[in-house]
Design brief:
This protein is mainly β. It has five helices and 36 strands. The strands form nine sheets. The chain has a four-stranded antiparallel β-sheet with strand order 3-2-1-32. α2 runs antiparallel to α4.
């Protein structure tokens, strides 16, 4: 909650400024701060907005749909309902074939096109920008930094939308790459029928591991890799040439995966058992029986579920990693992008010609995107304090619909008491602040200024305010509490 100063603690200059107009807010706040030579007086507006950085709020999961048709725009859906969001993205010049990942700090979704273009999609503005060309591989690091491998074997690190070319190169071209921490790139190359796992860094010696044939998985931070060989599991510390651990597994292991926290290794053996091993010692921890043979594994980025691909049919088994039990099976095909577990627990999967959302609890289909199976998909967690989702869902016309009005939204939260306290402090500072209640179970309490009869009037207030805000609409016939 906001700090409140008792009357006995206030200095003679401790007062709340009462600006007479929006253009005078900045001057009034400055006067409050420097008007006395003594202790700095409290300023409720400054305190309120400082608190906004620590709101106790949830996140919105969204799904990006990248069309494989030329010059078709990217589409955005809200989960778990797969409800389309009206938000325009400029189409890429070439069809997008690989979603690379989302850099939350920059609000950029990265992708690779069929023509080898590495593009950045600004999710706040909808603008698509080509950052590089002749790219054969792209990977997003755990800190949101992309790494590129070009056709000539050169390596590029993308930093603040600019390209930094490494002095280090890789030849032959890798079959797969993974971005690692500490500005390293892990690459799988095949040279003279020998598989090599390389840990590359600019200006530093390359760490090379000769690895056996078999399925491979790399941890989310790129510091560990596991290979399922014909005799057991082999674990590698990617940046340490001597960091190798072997554990014999009989019957021989099949597909492998590393947990999102990189503390466990998963594999399926020839007796259709899902096995979990300690990542550091490869000590077996537990197992669960599967209905049949499995051909692939995919972990939930948040460590809740494990997706197991059935080898003999279009079926996906869901394993609860917390309870360590197989909970259900869902129909669906398997590809490089789908199925996946979204941040809110929804499972997004292809079924026939469509893409469907499966609730991560009832395991029922909540909605489907018709014809979406031919496109590429990715999901991210969206911070609802950012304006994009709200702007996408709300009407953006210049005149509000009948019975509606425009507001300048300055925060959102699930905590009603916090929202009321925030609005009260803004009103004490002379602002016309109110709290809009949630419209449904998934909505938030919104602290707003207004209402305003037109969008232009609301935008003028937002500009003069000089604080983080965006425009929203709401039916006013029911009143504001």
């Amino acid at each position: 909650m906001l700090h409140r100063t008792h009357d006995s603690e206030r200095t003679p200059c401790s007062r709340v400024c009462q600006p007479t107009g929006w253009s005078s807010i900045a001057l009034a706040v400055l006067a409050c701060l420097v008007g006395c030579s003594g202790e700095t007086p409290p300023n409720r507006v400054k305190e309120a907005f400082a608190q906004a950085a620590n709101l106790e709020i949830g996140e919105t999961s969204v799904a990006f749909r990248f069309p494989t048709a030329a010059r078709a725009p990217v589409q955005l859906y809200q989960l778990p309902s797969l409800a389309p969001l009206k938000w325009d993205f400029n189409p890429a010049t070439s069809p997008i074939t690989q979603p690379v990942g989302y850099a939350e700090g920059e609000d950029l979704m990265y992708a690779l096109t069929q023509a080898g273009q590495f593009v950045a999609i600004d999710v706040a503005t909808g603008r698509t920008r080509i950052l590089d060309t002749a790219v054969v591989h792209a990977a997003l690091g755990p800190t949101g930094v992309p790494f590129l491998v070009r056709r000539d074997g050169s390596i590029v690190r993308v930093s603040r939308r600019s390209l930094a070319r490494w002095s280090t190169t890789v030849q032959p071209l890798p079959e797969r790459v993974w971005a690692a921490a500490r500005n390293r790139l892990v690459a799988l190359v095949v040279e003279d029928s020998t598989r090599l796992l390389l840990s590359l860094a600019d200006g530093r010696p390359t760490v090379t591991h000769r690895i056996p044939d078999g399925p491979i998985a790399v941890s989310s931070w790129g510091d560990a890799a596991v290979v399922g060989s014909d005799s057991g599991l082999v674990l590698y510390a990617t940046a340490d040439s001597g960091g190798v651990v072997f554990e014999r597994v009989r019957p021989a292991p099949g597909p492998v995966a590393i947990s999102s926290a990189a503390h466990q290794v998963y594999t399926v053996d020839a007796e259709d058992r899902l096995l979990a091993y300690d990542r550091f010692e490869l000590r077996r921890l537990r197992r669960v029986e599967l209905p049949g043979p499995a051909s692939d594994l995919r972990t939930d980025p948040l460590g809740r579920l494990l997706l197991v691909r059935a080898a003999d049919r279009d079926s996906i088994w869901i394993v609860d990693l917390v309870a360590w039990e197989r909970v259900t099976a869902i129909a669906g095909s398997w590809d490089t992008d789908l199925p996946l577990v979204a941040p809110d627990g929804t499972i997004v999967v292809r079924q026939g010609e469509d893409v469907v959302a499966v609730s991560g609890g009832s395991w029922t289909v909540t909605d489907r995107a018709q014809g979406g199976a031919t496109d590429r998909w990715s999901t991210v967690a969206w911070n609802p304090r950012r304006p994009t989702i709200q702007m996408a869902r709300d009407t953006l016309a210049s005149v509000a619909p009948t019975g509606g009005a425009f507001y300048v939204q300055v925060s959102s939260t699930r905590n009603r008491a916090w929202a009321d306290d925030f609005a009260q402090n803004l009103r004490r500072a002379g602002m016309d602040a109110n709290v809009l209640p949630p419209r449904d179970a998934d909505d938030l309490y919104r602290v707003v200024l207004g209402p305003y009869p037109t969008r232009e009037a609301a935008e003028a207030t937002s500009r003069q305010l000089g604080l983080p805000s965006w425009i929203t609409t709401r039916d006013t016939t029911s009143g504001i509490p």
